[in-house]
Amino acid sequence: MVIFSPLKRFFLITAIMVSVTGCGAAQTSHAKPSTSSSQSSTHTKKKAHKSKGVHVKGAVSSVSSSKLIVKTKAGTVWTFTLSSHTKYREKKKTISASQIKAGETVGVVARHRKSSLIARVVRLV
Length: 125
Description:
By secondary structure, the chain is mainly beta.
């Protein structure tokens, strides 16, 4: 026979009750604060997070000082704008932009800015 301390017994019983009845959130009701016509509720719903990031892996079709064009295995062609903030990597080392050549496989992390995709990281694969 196992003897539990009162604290362990409490947590064991609580865990069993929660697993049987659910988390209990649906069983409790919270009264909504009353708002008059002169007061408005300051509570706003959180907006869903919209990811602006794009991750693309493919072969370099062409590269210039300001543009990088990548074609994926599926045949989709992506055009990225290169900026002074774009980082170039091979494995864990920083490389120069001139080391990116047509035909090489790259992974690109980019962000949407207005109507273009700005490359943040170009990684040789």
